[in-house]
Amino acid sequence: KAGVTQTPRYLIKTRGQQVTLSCSPISGHRSVSWYQQTPGQGLQFLFEYFSETQRNKGNFPGRFSGRQFSNSRSEMNVSTLELGDSALYLCASSLGAELNYGYTFGSGTRLTVV
Amino acid sequence: AQSVTQLDSHVSVSEGTPVLLRCNYSSSYSPSLFWYVQHPNKGLQLLLKYTSAATLVKGINGFEAEFKKSETSFHLTKPSAHMSDAAEYFCVVSGPEYGNKLVFGAGTILRVKS
Predict the structure, then answer these.
(1) In terms of Cα–Cα distance, which of A4, A27, A7 is closest to A103?
(2) With pLDDT > 90 as the criterion, what percentage of chain B qualifies?
């Protein structure tokens, strides 16, 4: 059974550009969450989607956005990139909306902004 | 106020000796608690989860954790460390008071000496 797939694995962008990251959840999983991991701030929640609806959003500026498609695949977009956006972005999928299902994480996309 | 505190940023053990990674949480309700492991340049793997069932939770790779409400602790243990256990470990809390999102501790880096 395929795991959570994130593409691309590595990305280098220039300040001011925008970027789109993709996440394909485990087949049958309807919940997708995104997290940002940096050495200084650790792991921080970005947003969660369930059945194409954003259910939850973290404390990030509006430059960070996301969406989920009918096949549960999700994308996140960061516009007007800043140096501080350099991070490992992790996607997690879950079977349902309840916490006791647990989350399966992908390997992440490492974004470097120069 | 911090929601989850991992009491040690680094732990070093010898191969074959017990592992103890400490975690304290703050919650007004009965939370959901998780331990995740992250190997270098990899995503997060779920070790175990507590969701109001048995207080002693057994996970993968010989790890287990005990939920102690009176001490607000959820320490991770393993009887005998293996070299492959060297990684970063995250204690995670969630529940309705956290908007049902995962809130991560700062992480504990486990070093295993041969």
Answers:
(1) A4
(2) 73
Q: Which amino acid is residue A33, in one-letter code?
A: S
- From CA A54, how far away is CA A31, in angstroms rounded? 10
- Is the distance from CB of B76 to CB of B65 less than 8 angstroms? yes
Chain B nearest C-alpha distance from A102 (Å): 8
CB of A66 closer than 8 Å to CB of A21: no
Query: pLDDT-derived band of residue B65, with 50, 70 and 90 as boundaries?
Result: very high
- What are the pLDDT digits (tens) for A47-100? 999 999 998 899 999 999 999 999 999 999 999 999 999 999 999 998 876 666
Q: B106–A42: do the CB atoms touch at under 8 Å? A: yes
Q: Which residues of B72-99 are buried (b: 16+ CB within 10 A; e: fewer)?
A: ebbbbebeebeeebbbbbbbbbbbeebe
Note whether A103 contacts B95, CB cutoff 8 Å: no
Asked if B101 and A108 come within 8 Å (Cβ–Cβ), the reply is no
Output the average pLDDT for chain A: 93
